[in-house]
Design goal:
Blueprint lengths: L8 H14 L3 H8 L2 E8 L7 E8 L1 H23 L9 H20 L6 E8 L8 H9 L15 E3 L2 E3 L2 H12 L3 E4 L3 E3 L5 E3 L3 E5 L2 E8 L6 H13 L4 E6 H6 L1 H14 L1
Parallel strand pairs: 2-3, 10-11
Antiparallel strand pairs: 1-2, 4-5, 6-9, 7-8, 9-10
Helix pairs in contact: 1-2, 1-4, 2-4, 3-4, 6-9
Length: about 270
């Protein structure tokens, strides 16, 4: 099979995510943006037309939900084919996961080069990026010696360099901050307030050029502007003068540019 140009894996991931966002399929886009993607193989001679084999790697929660949904779908087909004449008991959670799988695969088919007629997607767990002390760090967690307050309560967690993030977009920003040699604290819960003490979790607390600032990644389900302003005022009361919000799509597509802009503003604050 001849392709004019094979898009890179990141081009496919970004374009597929944008396609989903354009269709207001926010849940599917959020799932996909928490994952990495690779096109492993093209099979030109398959029933139904040329097929792309795609691997999607993400947090365990995505893998568990999707594999469980596929098993549920197979059980449903067997029941409808061989079962007694009684209604199938639907599971809304599995049905929702199957809908997300369908939306992601349809979006991939829309983005992949024209000769592709089908996509077969395998969902796997994201591989860890290792540092030199990875074994000791995991042993501490396994033995209950390491307690975290990062991304607490997140539905989906992506890990990078033993830090916890809510999406692959946040990981890209973290990598860009790392490349810039900035001191930063990702997704760490803070205790603050005056008359009432509460917990708040900034996406990235950054120290640069003698100044502290907060970089926020605003996704499709982020809090309202009023809630954002109230939280920003709390941090500013405690001396954090620069708080900048960036759209998640911009952060995903141009994390280096976002960080460069933020550090420039922080140096001048």
């Amino acid at each position: 099979m001849v392709l004019d140009r094979l898009p890179t894996n990141d081009e496919i991931l970004a374009s597929t995510s944008q396609y989903l966002l354009d269709g207001s399929q926010f849940d599917a886009a959020t799932v996909l943006l928490s994952c990495t993607l690779s096109v492993d193989e093209f099979k030109p001679n398959t029933a139904g037309g040329p097929t792309a084999l795609v691997s999607v790697r993400g947090p365990r929660t995505v893998y568990d939900a999707f594999t469980s949904a596929v098993s549920y779908d197979q059980s449903r087909e067997e029941f409808l084919q061989f079962g007694p004449n009684e209604p199938w008991e639907r599971d809304e959670k599995h049905e929702h996961s199957l809908q997300l799988i369908s939306e992601i695969e349809s979006a991939l088919l829309a983005i992949l080069p024209a000769p592709i007629k089908r996509v077969d997607v395998e969902y796997r767990v994201q591989l860890l990026e290792l540092d030199e002390e990875w074994r000791e760090q995991l042993l501490e967690i396994a033995r209950g010696q390491s307690i975290h307050n990062q991304a607490v309560g997140a539905d989906r967690v992506v890990t990078w360099m033993n830090h916890r993030f809510r999406s692959q977009t946040e990981v890209r920003v973290a990598k860009a901050l790392d490349d810039a040699k900035a001191l930063f604290f990702p997704n760490c819960k803070a205790r603050l307030g005056v008359s009432e003490r509460i917990n708040k979790e900034p996406d990235f607390l950054v120290f640069h050029s003698g100044n502290w600032g907060i970089l926020e990644v605003d996704g499709p389900h982020h809090t309202s502007a009023a809630v954002d302003h109230e939280r920003d005022r709390l941090f500013k009361h405690h001396g954090i003068q620069l708080i900048e919000h960036f759209d998640a799509a911009e952060c995903f597509e141009n994390a280096q540019g976002v960080v460069k802009k933020f550090l420039y503003l922080l140096a001048r604050s």
